[in-house]
Write a structure and sequence with these properties.
By secondary structure, the chain is of the alpha/beta class. The chain contains nine helices and eleven strands. Strand 5 and strand 6 form a beta hairpin. Bound molecules: fe (ii) ion (FE2) (2 copies).
């Protein structure tokens, strides 16, 4: 089976999908017109992931995020970009991005959702939280979980998301019950809505986040004694379980014709605490 064939099968699986063009779901490197030797699924095809793919003799990599340091693959040109491109070419690796389809988005956000958001759906499945979902189950962002302490909840996230650690903001004496994945909190107009969401949640798990909106709100709410904690694991870590879950559903598409493996892009963050 050619890589291009497999890409077509995956696109069909995502139907109905309404899009003017391919949006972000593009070939980001390499030649899709070659036989597929194996599939690697990852949230982000970093250089390390590409090296591991080569070691495993898998030449098709599905990445959720862009890989050349732009929102789309703008023409970035520096020594690292050149090295990464050369690495893909010389090792016959083909990278394709499954982003817009994974999120079940049309133009780019359909007025009416027809498909699950498979990043958040997969995250729910990997956490085993189906019974705790509140509200939209096609894009589950809200959960009501059995009550636990703020620090036990931190430990749970570190374990489930395979993290090196977590940045915690807020009241660590809180009891966690209502959990909200807030997605990006980037300091723009959307943040008014994010603050409204933050009012209702005990635990807030953002992607990217700025300090001056939701973070500061949590700091002050906690100072007032409110039950509120922000768990900052970062954007890629937060979406990674959705891609891990892709290994489950892609089996129906690949039909065991080639091996499929998930590679964790890895928690980029390393922590050094203050010296005692
Ligand atoms: Fe993302
Ligand atoms: Fe995403």
């Amino acid at each position: 089976m050619k890589i291009s064939e497999l890409i077509e099968r995956i696109k069909q699986w995502h139907e109905p999908y309404v899009a003017k063009d391919e949006g972000r779901d593009l070939i980001l490197g390499g030649n899709p017109d070659q036989q597929c030797t194996g599939v690697i699924i990852t949230v982000c095809a970093t250089l390390e992931v590409l090296k591991k793919a080569k070691e495993k003799n898998c030449n098709f990599i599905i990445t959720h995020e862009s890989i050349l340091y732009g929102a789309k693959e703008e023409d970035m040109d520096n020594d690292v970009v050149q090295y990464k491109k050369r690495f893909m070419e010389e090792n016959g690796l083909c990278v394709w991005r499954d982003h817009d389809r994974m999120h079940g988005n049309g133009l780019p956000f359909q007025p009416e959702r027809k498909r699950n958001d498979y990043i958040f759906y997969g995250l729910m499945k990997e956490l085993g939280w189906e019974e705790y979902v509140e509200g939209d189950s096609m894009k589950p962002l809200w959960y009501k979980i059995p009550k636990m302490s703020a620090l036990d909840f931190a430990d749970l996230l570190i374990e489930k998301f395979h993290l090196n650690g977590l940045r915690l903001v807020g009241n660590l004496d809180s009891t966690i019950e209502t959990v909200w994945f807030s997605e990006h909190v980037q300091g723009g107009k959307m943040d008014k809505g994010k603050l409204k969401g933050g009012l209702k949640a005990d635990a807030i798990i953002p992607f990217e986040i700025v300090d001056f909106t939701l973070t500061q709100y949590v700091v002050d709410a906690a100072e007032m004694g409110q039950n509120k904690v922000l768990y900052e694991m970062g954007h890629f870590n937060a979406e990674e379980l959705g891609m891990r879950y892709m290994c489950t559903w892609i089996q129906d598409i690949v039909k065991q014709e080639v091996p499929v493996e998930f590679i964790q892009a890895g928690d980029f963050f390393q922590y050094r605490g203050k010296k005692a």
